[in-house]
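Incident log, structure service

09:12 report received: a user says their structure output differs between two submissions of the same chain.
09:20 pulled the input from the user's history:
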Amino acid sequence: MDGHSTYTPKSGFAKWFEARLPIVGFIYPSFVAYPTPKNLNYWWNFGAILVFMLVAQIVTGVVLAMNYTPNANLAMDSVEHIMRDVNYGWLIRYLHANGASLFFFSVYIHMLRGLYYGSYKEPREILWILGVIIFLLMIGTAFFGYVLPWGQMSFWGATVITNLFSAIPLVGDAIHTLLIGGFAIDNPTLNRFYALHYLLPFMIAGVVVLHIWALHIPGNGNPTGVDVKSGQDTVPFHPYYTIKDFFGLSVFLLLFAWLVFYVPNYTGEPDNYIPANPLQTPAHIVPEWYLLPFYAILRAIPDKLFGVVAMFSAIAVLAFLPWLDTSRVRSATFRPIYRQFFWIFVICAIGLGYLGSQPPEGGFVIAARILTVYYFAFFLVIMPVVGLLERPKALPTSITEAVLAKNAAAAAKV
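09:34 re-ran on a clean worker, output below:
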């Protein structure tokens, strides 16, 4: 992806194959000999973890689709059939359901790492925007998948979310009817959502390829935010980072296994084990945990249309970060003022997630409004203003200098 291949086949078969389909020569410079900054920390492991989770979700999802029935009268029974009658169906379903949670957990860490180390700044703007598109596709996929069990929370969650489209002036009702396939949530809605839930992961995979391609043009960022100056600043991706990614993935899989085998329903909603009933509303309608911050922003605005606009704007604003951040320094490591605001933002996002899970009444609504104001102020006011006024610390002249200084400091402590 990053230029002419340096791969030289050695065996006779490899030479024969490479002359007819140079796929190894295509992969080699991007994933084996690819020069990578030597100072990447473990936060960079989540890129590889996300690729693994995407493949795992597609594989388990295809197997589940073989046994699922997208019919309003049979959907929940088919889910129970998967759990009880299909060989290892329970395991595949728990892997898929909990995999979605860990997929979002990983992508949030991946995004926060990008925010902290300025991974969106020039020349990585397209790389960042492609990441925002992947995030949007993930939200759509997760929402459609949430509806498929056709339980109480699925049904009423779909009712609430699809009704938001009716708030769009002039064309809202038409879009709403087209989306659900009628005048109310029913069998056509389930069929549409099933088709879209199956389609979108493959679109995500396509954008991920573009995302990785865009990464290999400017190269990896790094914790210092300093560009690569010479070959001394880098090491080959293999074996250094393949081993490091493998170690990080192994630790991550321990968490995954604990979730699947010990608390498989921890992140699920109990109401989704009750068959959908259009005549009875759940006491409290909530989405999955990873969408709660945006749900809290939606409910913090008293007007329906402006609430929808605010919710989608909370995601769309991420695409404009390369131009909202006016600092000439990438990494927050060298930005003492921005770093404080960044951690307040992290607390704010977690707080919004908590408030999204609470009833929309009293102090919860007031707190959600305060945090919503900070959420947007962080991107639209704090980031541009602090970037202009802040005086960053002195940057190292190279990545090698930063690594040597860090090693010297560690040796002095021993």
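09:41 both user submissions now match this output. Likely a transient worker issue. Closing.
09:42 reviewer note: DSSP finds 16 helices and two strands in the chain. Residues 292 and 312 are 13 Å apart (CA to CA).
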